Amino acid sequence: MISTVMVLVFAVIAMIFFFTADIAMGYAIEFILGLGR
Description:
The protein is mainly α. Helix content is about 95%, strand content about 0%. It has one domain (about 1-35). The mean pLDDT is about 95.
């Protein structure tokens, strides 16, 4: 039971991390392209 909860918690943390990283990468790429113009 505990292992199942740990896996679910880890999955949620990973999802939040990747979601945040995706937004950050999008802003960074947009910023770099903006400087290029």
